Amino acid sequence: MPSPRPHPRPVGAATRGTTHRNRLRRMDRWIAACHGRALRSAGDPSVVDLGYGAAPWTAVELLARLRAVAPRTEVTGVEIDPSRVAAALPYERPGLRFLHGGFEIPLPGGRRPLLIRAANVLRQYPEDEVPAAWARLTARLAPGGLLVEGTCDEIGRRHVWVALGPEGPRTVTFAARLRGLDRPSDLAERLPKALIHRNVPGEPVHAFLRDFDRAWASAAAYAPLGARQRWLTAVRELAADWPVMADPRRMRQGEVTVRWQALAPRGV
């Protein structure tokens, strides 16, 4: 009898694995609001939580939040560390499973997900490896699919992510807990890998954060009405010069989304 065919080596490297409950709630809510219709319309809405870490909380929470808007959604947590997969198996349930793998997204039968979420995964990689990782992941998407890739702080108060389709990056979203936010550029330390080293004079993302800080300062008179009113006023001022996708419902959640082309690194 021929020997079993070995499994291909997963593509990628293990992350630190740090995770906390509710850490990715801002990203999850944005996905549910902006991609929920696509998930509802799909006959087989498959979602991947790539690199969920040492505990399965982010995948468990993603399933709950997406099923609230698209009840047929199924989530697969994919981890490159086999011990993390083994630790997550007791949390499997209908619609939620865990697999060993990496950027190749090894769903059974070659199934293609409608959504891949990669949070706090690429931050450890060199900047020049990000385009190849994006290309590999978006190539695995189903038609109409979306890759959401970004970084947040340890308890999910500040988060920045890029949304990509098969054609490449589309938007960048900045999301924050507004109470306690000193200025919008505080989000700079959570820029995804493709942008964090570009926050220097002469680069678009640096100019954007500079202008956002100026708009925030200009809106200081609204601070007594609350941080939300100050944020809304600042974003409206910012939209005069930047291609902000000003959805009032998302803005009220402490978000601002900008078209990728406006922030894309120079020379890339």
UniProtKB/TrEMBL annotation:
Alphabetized UniProt keyword annotations: Methyltransferase, Transferase
Single GO term (MF): methyltransferase activity
InterPro entries: SAM-dependent_MTases_sf
Entry keyword Transferase: yes
A biological process from GO: methylation
SUPFAM superfamilies to which the protein is assigned, alphabetical: S-adenosyl-L-methionine-dependent methyltransferases
Source domain of life: Bacteria
Region of interest: Disordered: 1-20
Protein name: Class I SAM-dependent methyltransferase
